Amino acid sequence: MEGLIFQSSEFGTDEIYANMEEYIMQITRDNYSQYAQMVQQVFGKKASSNDPLAQCDYGNFSLRFKPVDINFTKPNWDTIMTKRDKPAMSEEEFDEAIKELARKEFATGKRDDDAYRKLCMQHGETVSPDRKAIYESGMKKTGGKMNAACMFWDSKGNKTLSYNPESRNWKAISTDEEFARARVFTSIYNDELARLKEEYGEKAKGNVSYSKIKADISAENGLPAPAAESFMWARRSQERISGPGLRTAS
């Protein structure tokens, strides 16, 4: 599977909003063939010239360790999904953060692109392959030069990272695990938007305040708003001491 798409159907019209191609530089299973053809056309135009790109064949596994003398931009790992030293937060915190994002966007009636992008990436990276290590291992075998396939594979032969020498852009190629993780994100996000829509009505988008939403949630939980915040802070503090997913006996 070579794609990652979030379907967001509750906010505005039905649309594929958090397309990873657009938001965190991910090649999707739907656009891979088209993208590969586009890059290969660039190489084809150089076939009769002395341009080093004439030696390239995009996605050709047999050329993964063949170095070519082309200038390339190093990957920016702040914008490419890869395994991190530790998750940005616990699963419970991720769930709450996704819901909070939905609540804030419902209250404002607008997308917070930066927040959405960052949270999508952090959530997905909990199952991402170590693309940085894969890249660094491949570069060692080519002496620091780009390989003629302009692509990097993991030890099992799965495509993980792609480079377009024309646009000088890097793109991650998603795994089955990342795709499944994206569906989890979308489900939590859409479910919360649906709940807000049910509770406040369609016309409440952009008109109900975030503080009102928070106060109502606190009331439903039998806690005043300040107490609810203190409760969540205490629970997260306990998690950091006990470890993610661990709870003390009541």
Provide the fold topology.
Blueprint: H1 20-23, E1 26-27, H2 32-45, E2 67-68, H3 91-108, H4 113-124, H5 131-141, E3 146-147, E4 151-153, E5 159-164, E6 169-173, H6 176-200, H7 210-220, H8 225-242
Parallel strand pairs: 1-6
Antiparallel strand pairs: 2-3, 4-5, 5-6
Helix pairs in contact: 3-4, 3-6
Write up this protein:
The chain has eight helices and six strands, in the order αβαβαααββββααα. The chain has 250 residues and is α+β, with helices and mostly antiparallel strands. The strands form two sheets. Strands 1-6-5-4 form a four-stranded mixed β-sheet. The chain has a two-stranded antiparallel sheet with strand order 2-3. A hairpin with a 4-residue loop joins strand 5 and strand 6. The two termini are 44 Å apart.
* Percentage of residues in DSSP E strands: 5-15%
Spans of at least 5 consecutive residues with low confidence: 1-24, 244-250
Order of neighbouring strands in the sheet with most strands:
1-6-5-4
Q: Report the C-alpha radius of gyration, rounded.
A: 22 Å
How would you classify the helix and strand content by structural class? alpha+beta
Largest sheet, in brief, is:
4 strands, mixed
| Shape summary | elongated
Which labels suit this protein?
250 residues, alpha+beta, 4-stranded mixed β-sheet, 8% strand, elongated, disordered N terminus
Q: Nutshell version of this structure?
A:
The chain is of the alpha+beta class and 250 residues long.
